[in-house]
């Protein structure tokens, strides 16, 4: 048995797969299948170890933030890279490290440093970092660190 995310697009599944595999290192296109009905297709790809399926089937249901992909980053450089790549060509910045890409898929670009700060046993410092994050769109690790340290 295998469980993995499945994205339902109107017509952009293959374009989305190409976009995502161009951004994420160690990504692979696994399958492109044209279904018997015209304009329907199924694609499968792997984003750095996460297998994903996507379908073109005239979806009229938009993606929403109830389901998102979280990218845990190790540095500001990596945070900036994913943020800029995913907001390119029509993506939208949202508060607290969230964004939607040009296909309307929701992503969270979250530095590991933020997660460590908000887990810190010093609840006052953790609260300061969290409050600083609430004022951001793309996460600024240096600004979080300043807030965390008081």
Question: What would you say this structure looks like, in words?
Answer:
The chain is of the alpha/beta class. It contains five helices and eight strands; from the N terminus they run βαββββαβββααα. The strands form two sheets. A four-stranded mixed sheet has the order 1-4-3-2, covered by helices on one side. β2 and β3 form a beta hairpin. α3 packs across α4 and α4 runs antiparallel to α5. The longest helix is centred in the middle third of the chain and has 12 residues. The model has no long low-confidence stretch (mean pLDDT 96).
Indicate the percent of residues in helices.
Answer: 25-40%
Strand content: 25-35%
Mean pLDDT: 96
Please state the overall shape, judged from the principal axes of the Cα atoms.
elongated
What is the strand arrangement across the widest sheet? 1-4-3-2
